[in-house]
Amino acid sequence: MIEGIELREIRTFLAVADELHFGRAAERVGLTSSRVSQTIRSMESRIGGALFDRTSRRVTLTPLGRQLRDHLQPAHDALAAALTSAREMARGVAGTIHLGMFDPPIYGGPHLTVIIRTFETRYPDCTVVVRDIPFEAQLDWLRSGAGDALVIRLPNTASDLTVGPIMTDEKRVLAITADHPLARRGQADAEDLGDLTMIDIATVPRELMNAFLPPHTPSGRLIPRHEVHRLTEVLPLVALGTAAHATVGSFAEHYRYPGVAYIPITGLPRSCSALAWLTRRTTARVIALAQTAETVLTAMRTRD
């Protein structure tokens, strides 16, 4: 171990390694630029090698700096998580939980409000703030520390996530132009998708998109796809007959659009969403929220 290097110096080094800019790193750790420079020079002196290459225009990591960053970052995150967990245990369940999800009425499910109200009644010193986070930004938002937990659509195989209670478990429906023969028939099956052009949302992770809409029909026919980048693009395309959209029942309940019909579709797997959080940032607040959600959802299932 290098004697005398403190946690604040490690945090400063990691900030510079991330920003590659001494001024921005200084703002991030609450120091002056000159103090950040002094800290880095002191670390380099004690380690015995340069961590950064500096010019008047840019800052880059040296091979030694990259190696140190790669080794220090997970250790720093684990230490920060341990200290946060200890502080929360001492304080009890208090503060704010930032809970992210894409399209809260769909992902959070019909009991989200009851879960939050029950949680805040049990833990009056803790507040839940719901944030609408785009698909493509969800894990970055969580890993950056901006959020405490997510409601994600399954499957999700990220190795650093703990998946908690299932928030929704839904049958599938097909959004299709109202004058299509399938709409008049009133139902569809997965094999019918080979005769349609289906919406493919490019910003959805491919693992999830392919689970939500398989590439092939049960008989092996390729399912044609029309790529979109935002959910708001979907229903106008469906109404025009350009494409159809395989979705979930709650989408049909929340999003009505002229010229669009929703019909049940068989042969596609049910779709679930679940509460999830970073394993290394498991906190008393998140555990309490997960336990409350499980209690409320179990009671609702029993009542239904």
TrEMBL record:
InterPro entries: LysR_HTH_N (IPR000847), LysR_subst-bd (IPR005119), WH-like_DNA-bd_sf (IPR036388), WH_DNA-bd_sf (IPR036390). Belongs to the LysR transcriptional regulatory family. This is LysR family transcriptional regulator. Keywords: DNA-binding, Transcription, Transcription regulation. The keyword Transcription regulation applies. Signal peptide: none annotated. Residues 5-62 form the HTH lysR-type domain.
